[in-house]
Design a protein that fits this description.
Layout: E1 24-28, H1 34-44, E2 51-57, H2 64-70, E3 78-82, H3 88-96, E4 105-108, H4 123-151, E5 154-159, H5 172-192, E6 197-203, H6 210-221, H7 229-250, H8 254-265, E7 273-275, H9 281-289, H10 294-306, H11 308-322, H12 324-330
The structure holds NADP nicotinamide-adenine-dinucleotide phosphate.
GO biological process, one term: estrogen biosynthetic process
Protein name: Retinol dehydrogenase 8
Family: Belongs to the short-chain dehydrogenases/reductases (SDR) family.
């Protein structure tokens, strides 16, 4: 049974109930900030007006930044709607309000992070990460799938992470939630091709959004109950400074991730996987280069604990490689 009957409620009414001919309806989750906001605005401002964007967020009181960034697109190529990926009722209500339930592309962006020694995290804390990053994404995909299958067309995009391919210490549960969604989507993608539905995983490395800021704030007030002093020292004195350095040196902007996502959405036959930061490709390739798996685990261990200077130097080198003045200097013209 189709969910669709109505129109998006509560926000400025769209100029048209249905997208213009050739226009695609794109639903994006988690648009109150960061990557989701940038994706929604970039698609809504598409010079060829190829998209009608339904930018969703769980708390509409946070829509100010999105409205400001969208400017004239509001009510024209961009509408705002409430959607909490952790609630069946909210997902159903949002989809029911879309005219003719037409979702051509869904961008599953909503996500939460978690860092810290696992000894200090309760199982409930860990389940919350899976509720959003895994089950939240699955809930939205399940809701749009029947209509996409009926139409025999659609594109499911998931903002995953390089941590969906390569684990990173003290990000154990977050990485697990992204690995889980990678496995889910890799399996689903095969079945869906016969319905002409494409699945794409966008895998950013570090991105400078509120995501990391929120995590750093959370750890600043936690006293990490149940964690031994050696592990805590390792987290505070090795992991946290390294994470800050990595974000400061090779962190990307959310605009870059939005561009990669928009490029994928514009493809006729979109790729399954797209890493946004080429600097991470060698890291994720290490695990496939050695079938024992030791190479990637031991390389990361050595870089973090034994050859800290090498780690710093390689970050400096990578920063230099990606610096625009360096590009200028090696440019052939
Ligand atoms: N930043 C990075 O370094 C990085 C790297 C790789 C992948 N990613 C992934 O990129 C995605 C976006 O992250 P970001 O960096 O843009 O961080 P962000 O600015 O914190 O954005 C996360 C968004 O998800 C929303 N959200 C959280 N729980 C939700 C729920 N239950 N229902 C609906 N929306 C919910 C947040 O809404 P509220 O404002 O209501 O909390 C916010 O809009 C995430 O999936 C993240 O895992 C980020």
């Amino acid at each position: 049974m189709s969910l669709c009957t109505g129109t998006i409620r509560g926000e400025r009414k769209p100029e048209r109930d249905m997208p213009g001919s050739g226009q695609k309806t794109v639903l994006v989750t988690g648009c109150s900030s960061g990557i989701g906001l940038k994706i929604a605005v970039r698609l809504a401002k598409d010079p060829q007006r190829r998209y009608q964007v339904i930018a969703t967020m769980r708390d509409l009181r946070k829509k100010g930044s999105l409205e400001e960034a969208a400017g004239d697109c509001m009510g024209s190529t961009l509408m705002v709607a409430q959607l909490d990926v952790c609630s069946d009722e909210s997902v159903t209500r949002c989809l029911t309000a879309i005219p003719h339930c037409r979702v051509d592309v869904v961008v599953n962006n909503a996500g939460v992070g978690q860092i810290g020694p696992i000894e200090s995290l309760t199982i409930d804390d860990m389940k919350k990460v899976f509720e959003t990053n895994f089950f939240g994404t699955v809930r939205v995909i399940k809701a749009v799938l029947p209509d996409m299958k009926r139409k025999r067309s659609g594109h499911i995009v998931v903002i995953s992470s390089v941590m969906g391919l390569q684990g990173v210490m003290f990000n154990d549960v977050y990485a697990a939630s992204k690995f889980a969604i990678e496995g889910f989507c890799e399996s689903l993608a095969v079945q869906l091709l016969q319905f002409n539905i494409f699945v794409s995983m966008v895998e950013p490395g570090p991105v400078n959004t509120g995501f990391e800021v929120k995590l750093m704030e959370e750890v600043s007030w936690s006293d990490f109950p149940g964690t031994d002093t050696e592990t805590l020292r390792c987290f505070k004195e090795t992991y946290l400074p390294a994470a800050r350095e990595i974000f400061a040196t090779i962190g990307q902007s959310p605009e870059t991730v939005a561009k990669v996502t928009a490029d994928l959405i514009s493809m006729e036959r979109p790729d399954f996987r797209r890493q946004t930061n080429p600097l991470y490709t060698p890291l994720t390739a290490l695990k496939y280069a050695d079938k024992t798996g030791n190479l990637s685990v031991r390389t990361l261990y050595n870089l973090m604990f034994r050859h800290r200077m090498l780690f710093r130097l390689s970050l400096g080198f990578l920063k230099c490689l990606t610096c625009s003045c360096f590009h200028g200097r090696i440019s052939p013209t």
